[in-house]
## 1
Amino acid sequence: MKRYEVIIVGAGPSGLSAAIEAAKRGIKTIVFDENEKPGGQLFKQIHKFFGSKKHHAKIRGFKIGEELLKEADEAGVEVVLNATVIGLYADKEVVVRRGDEVSHYKGDTVIVATGAAENMVTFPGWTLPGVIGAGAAQTMMNLHGIKPGKKILMLGSGNVGLVVSFQLLQAGCEVAALVDAAPKIGGYGVHASKVARTGVPFYLSHTITKAHGEDHVTGVTISKVDEHFSPIEGTEKYFDVDTICMAVGLSPMSQLLKMSGCQMEDNPKKGGQVPITDEYGETSVPGLFAAGDVSGIEEASSAMIEGRMAGVCVAEYLGYCTEEEKEQILAELKEDLESLRQGMFAPANRGKEITETEEGIAVSKNLLQHGFLTEKEVEKYPGVVHKVGVHPVMECTQNIPCNPCQDACPRGCITIGENITYLPIVADGSKCSGCGMCVASCSGQAIFLVDEDCGDGSATVTVPYEFFPIPEEGSKGFGLSRNGEKLCEATVVSVKSVAAYDHTNLLTMRVPKEYAMAARFFKAG
Amino acid sequence: MAVKNKADVIIVGAGIIGCAVAYYLTKKGKSVIVLEASDNIGNGGSSRNGGGVRQSGRDPRELPLAMYGIEKLWPGLSDELGVDCEYHKEGNLRLGKTEKHLEILQGLTERAKACGLDVRMIDAKEVKQINPHLSDEVIGASWCPTDGHANPMVTTLAFYRKARMQGARFITGEPVKRLRKVKGRLREVLTESGDVYEGDFVLVAAGYASRKILGTVGVDVPMHVELMECLVTEAEPPMFNQMLGTAEADFYGHQSDHGSFVFGGSSGLELNNKDEGAKNSPGNAAITAPCICRGIMKYFPELADAKIVRTWAGYIDICQDGVPVLGFVDDIPGLVVACAFSGHGFGIAPAVGEQLAMLITEGKTSVDISGLRYGRFQAKI
Amino acid sequence: MNQIVDRSRDIGEFVPQPDDDMLVCRCEEVTKGEIRKAVHDGMWTITEIRRYLRTGMGLCQGQTCARLVKGIVARELGISPAQLEPATARSPMRPIEMKVLGKEEVSDTWQ
């Protein structure tokens, strides 16, 4: 049996973060992961993250993964892949399967960072091939370069459902509809809007009542549900699809912790069965920690902070840092974590009905029900102003902890204010150069550059564009509305792609000026 | 304290013994309340054992119960309870690999034969005829063709289900604090929650916990616990239907109807294994399952690729002399004891249930259980 | 602390539902109707349902169906799913061949 001062189970965002904190204080640190590649879910995340600079905002998930791996490597973390922890026994004994044998390890401390697994819902036909988890779809597309299907229906309007729908579109799949039994969209409005403007219809208060097909999915029927989530007869709608994607939440993979005998609780707010821990992740078994989704479903950004917390606690537990040092770092990390847990989507607000923004503006009902803002609604928000010449229009309407746009503008046109969750506003007297950095920096793709009147009856609208093929300059097509309807003819003026945009192309289209505040997407004609 | 709950018989422990007694009592029209400390019915050895329904290898004092059960009760049990208990009466092989093993098996066989059991020694060739999957290391075995196996989890729950249908009241999550005599007779069961249950008889069938409970009326069964382990494989194509054991006690088990193999075994450290398992469920030791696997593969090389899907641990309540304590306690009228089954209670559970129900209602049993009485323990000199 | 449950509490009759033949546990092929019937047979905990029907006892060890079974049992009993204790977690966390589990890395530094 080998003994390590700290054994970490899971090389995802929280496990790696924990390992970095432990190893850089001189602890011999080993991380086991059953996968052939480290990084957990990060390498499937091709979208830009929200948050502040500190939280890797506007950086794509897989880049964050690369940074973490580099940092772990530099700190001397030993990451062992294809290593399945099959059991966590008394006295923090870890049994690991590698190849054709098992090995026993003892940890003076153990950090379990095993993450979560996808939930499923049942309906007749749910076991047919072609019904898959959204995470599985992401793995197929983003890790293996395989399209999960041609025509897909997405069930679930949380951030996973919204983000994966967008990625399916990017991969060249057709998303027939986005369905959720809840009466309103669960994820960020900006994520919904970028899907809606491509023309994907949203069906809230709907559920799947049947998957059709003999040996694989050939279609799906959805029905409207009543307030008890029971399908209403006569409201059936059929879609011709070959794949049904489920994004109906995650459950912590906490079995190792339960097996270890630490105290557990069933907490629906945390996504299921989780260990009872203190605020830094220590379980009822001294020296046994949990970090990331396994201790409660959240975002990768918070998982990384939780991992760091556990890593620092372990360092202090083992005498590698003083209690004062630990307290100081934990206080900073706690502040970071709290800043991430602010806003309308904060864990504390789960299940609450929020009708107004922090600024006192009514939340768009259309956004919550259909995924897009109406032309009238959009005018109420502080990021939407009318000016002469090119200027940013920020259709950011929900309070989420995110502020890269503020730093993106070299001329200081955009301010968020004292609270990271405030909606961005256009600073008085500022002069936009049209550089587009704000457009590319917005992880929600909610910032547009608009010149409402070019003087010749036309307007230009610059939209973030992350699809292939990239339209050529001068090509003709259509300006689409916020819900993806063809509004008008549009001509591509330019497509800019510089390194600083990080693969978000800025497509500028010319439209008749009456559509300056309506056209938000370009479709080649 | 007002008596809240009355029945003819209060049973402490909803393992297979408690459930079986409840079934046979309610079948006779008696009212029964069963109290279970854990959240689950059959949470102790009843759901954690290897499913053997054996006569061979048993002590002569409990052999009559085993033979009676296999002749009269097990064959019709699934029909009677309305649930398939997966009972198979296709024999038990106790395997030997050395001359010393064969000596052990010979001794067991002689004793059982003397009690009238059909059991005999067979050579390697005959072993292979019965079970062609065994390795060449096996040089002989004892063979009892009327032994077999069943599904312990389902059998326990089948007794519970039928007893419940017949009106037995089961209360889970209700640990017993103490027993209470009223005017010279044991009548009351007081629980940790403050509830009081009253009956004309109280049966204590709570595994090792019986010791503490019985202690509240000054009755003590000399026993200890050992933490044993089992494992189960994924479903495999049908290979054989005998119950298996070994002279060396490396493992025991069978293939279930489902196709999975259920094997029990030990690491040799069971007496002192530490248990830091979860609530309602004892914890495994990291070194036990690998040891069981190595044991099995010596006998069944072709199972090397079978995947283990789960392991579990369970306490066996081992009596000082290796057989259970059953029946009345002479100086405590109203008390019936059924505990210390020593790791082989499952196979005799239907017989114990039926006979104890008879004892309670008629004051006597049809099978001789006198060798298992409470008062049998004495100092060695 | 365990919860006191009187298994004779009236939970009503078993009423067939149109989707009773729908598979819930894919590994062991257990249907929704079988789970609902088991509740009426007195199997009121996730552990008892597992032992009675084998739900969650297959290759995936309940990773997919645990939550679904919980929901069905809770609804049948008229309680919240959070009141049902999830099943015990058991090693191995992933199925493992007997020859692999039986092959332990030999090391002379025991503890």
Note: The first helix of chain B runs from residue 16 to 27.
## 2
Amino acid sequence: MGILKTTGIIRHARKGQLQIQETILVIFIFIVLIMFGLIFFYKAQSTSIANDFKKFELDRVSVDFITLGDMPEFSCSKAGIRESCIDTSKLVVFSELINNKLYKNYYFDRWGYKNITIYTVYPGKNNIKCTTASADNCGVWDVYINKPSKITSKIIRDTPVSLYFPDKDQYAIGIMVVEAYNV
Amino acid sequence: MNKKGEGEQFNWIFVIIAGGIILGFFIMFTFKYIELQEKRQDVDTVRFFGGKVISASSKLQVGSGGAAVDSNEQEGLRFGYFVDLGYKCAGNESTLLINKGRTAWYKLDDEVVFMDDEIRVNALDLWILPWNFPFYVTNFIYLSDPRTNFYFVKDQSTKEFVDNLDISSAFKVEKVDQNILSIKQNSKVVYFLNKVPLRETIIKLKGNLTSANFVYINMQKKEAQFFEDGKWSEAVKFYISDDNNGHLLGAIFSNNADNFNCNVNRALDRTKTIANIYSRRADLLGQLDRRSECHYNEISRSLSKYASGELLLVDVIKNQNLAGAGCIWVF
Amino acid sequence: MFKKKSQIEMIGLVIVVIILAVGLLLYVRFAVFREETNTQDSSIELAYLTNLMSSIFNVKVCESSPIKFDEGIGVCFQDGQICGENACDYLKGQTKDILGKLNLKKYKNYSIWVTRGNENKTILAECKTGILTHTTIVMPDKSHYTAYFRVC
């Protein structure tokens, strides 16, 4: 009887030990799972933050192009006071100046691979390309043309712009189309 | 029996080590999480500050007096938390750094920002001034810690100039004589004197103050010097015209000779590029409008020289741009 | 009996772990990968709208006695006439003509109105909500008006 009782006690003790060990194992695995989860969470957040910043820089480029007409290279001015329009004579001059290597590099550093073209749409369309010779009767300005030979993707944005013809003191409406290329 | 005791000891050692590792991991994660939130805040800061404030300010059409935003006003620039702002200008590139640029930064294109190279702020005073030299080039953006007190030190020869020097009311400015100058923490002292103050004078004045900057401006030579690393820097030349002292004000808001020099050069490079465009525009206008009284060729030549570096022609060009008898304004 | 008990316990454990894993995944999906509100796009939209407004407001109307559209808005506020017509009605017609020729796919409806102090005059009212921008018009007699332009 004594032996049986001792055996029973021993069996219960072993059972208890087993239970404890099982619990410890469960908790250990649980903690390991949480650790993996936290590491994954940290990596995901870091990537998300880096992507946020990249998106911000991309959006900034878009805003800069929509407001291209505000640059002193293009904006109208009378008596030193700026107006909200694009001076077409500056467009003609710029599109010829950009062929100079020095200026081409300067603006390439700023704009990269892009095509910027302006088309008149109001009061009427005019498909003649603008140069110094045709400046008084034209309607298309190739402001900046820099298309790479290989393109992986492109984004196109357009915006209406106010065009001013200083020789006629007239305003027109144009559409500025920007094609941005990724190489 | 002895082995049983040893077994128990090993058990405890195991528990302590395992527990220590697990606890250590969670503590490390806490610090990493704080770092993560700071990075996110940096991106939010650059989105707000760079994208909305700086970018918008550079394109804003403001009058000749500029536009200022006082941090104490309702629309003032307040971050809600402290941020380390830095400004770095080298070569032809300048960048605004948020918390040393670890996660986020704002690369400036045409924007010209004059500020101290490193400030820790939770708000900013901002002043935007168009820079016409003589035509519009860009908006100069002046930034300052709202806690900064500006002291303009004058003497007999510069008294009139300093008293008439217009600074936006958003900034705290005192115009004093040298002998009554007394500064406190967060001071920017700008000397408008005939001679650069002695190094010992500045060191004595600075005393134990950790946040005090000193600038010397020589109005006759149009040069600025900055007190850095215990001595005056090399003189940096700047350009002003009769009605535009953007560079001079830039010297007041800067505390670093390299940054100031870089900003001056960036502004001048832009000016020369735009001058070239105006020169060619004047030629084109001469072809479209053949009236001899309009003198487009004359201004075109002046602008061409200006574009190649003869910056002293600024006032000449300004006077030539007087559209008379219905002529077209060159700029 | 003991076997069944331990099996039941194992199942319980598995269920707990599965519930935890699902909970974690849901948290990651909604807290970590949530879609951010696109604040930058509104800057682009606003810049586009400002360009459109400037383009329309700069145009000169009425060939017989040309006047800039923005000055015409001031005339409209003063109940004046352009080209022999009520200025506000004339500008409404011109706006529709201009927008028709521009043929912008982005927006279909527009509103233009002008205010000065507490008074306002409407030129075109097709939008109640949408993106709004405004500009200050300074007339030759130095009077100021605020013109609003909304698209939807």
Note: Residues 73-182 of chain A form one domain.
